[in-house]
Amino acid sequence: MGQDMRKAEEKFGMVLLRNLAGVLAIVWMCVIFAFSAQTKEESGAVSESFTYHMVSSTRTFFHLDLSDERVKEIADAIEGFIRKVAHMTEFGILSVLLYIWIGQWEMGFLRRGGTAAAAAAIYAATDEMHQLFVPGRSGRFSDVCIDSAGALAGVLVFALFVKLVKHVHGRKLKRAMREE
Asked: Given 33, 40, 67, 73, which is the most exposed site by the fewest CB atoms within 10 A?
């Protein structure tokens, strides 16, 4: 009886976790929407500030002798790259949340991962359409591709992480069983 109760509790916990991931996916979509609603100037200021602070922190962390002017130069040079990585990360997080939420329905990894990545890619397309109506912003197909690549990468990295954790956990269980 105790074993059945524990399985029921674990199943209930997984249902809660998956539903929480669904709610968090919706919240994350709202965060993405809010970032996309920023004008070009607002978005640029956030990006410049973030990149400058990142380079400045690196300077401090590694005790690099860089002037503020050199930090600004480096930040300006990598800002475009950082923006694209940020976009990929935003949609990678979204696809992972969707992947977890979709887990409540029986389907294989390819179908589940493909569905999560495709849903995130569709949201990326709608996000770029939304930007067409924001002053100074434009919707770009290349950004949809970058966001979609981030969504796919997010699902793949998460799935590999889960597989690694299960593998390590399985080895620990086998070791514990041998020691008994």
From this structure: 67
Q: Are 99 and 114 in contact (CB under 8 A)?
A: no
What are the tokens at 3? Answer: 């074993």
- 1 CA to centre of own chain: 40
Residues 6+ apart with CB under 8 A from 158: 96, 99
Determine the Cα–Cα distance for residues 166 and 180; give it in Å rounded to an integer.
21
The structure's pTM equals 0.86
Rounded Cα distance between 23 and 42, Å, is 28
Look up residue 110 and give its two tokens. 């390819």
List alpha helices for 37-108, DSSP H.
Answer: 40-61, 68-102
Q: State which amino acid sits at residue 179.
A: E
User: Considering Cα of 15, then 99, then 165, then 24, what sign does the dihedral take?
Assistant: negative
| Amino acid type, 5 | M
pLDDT tens digits along 108-131:
889 999 999 999 999 999 999 999
> Is the CB of residue 130 less than 8 Å from the CB of residue 36?
yes
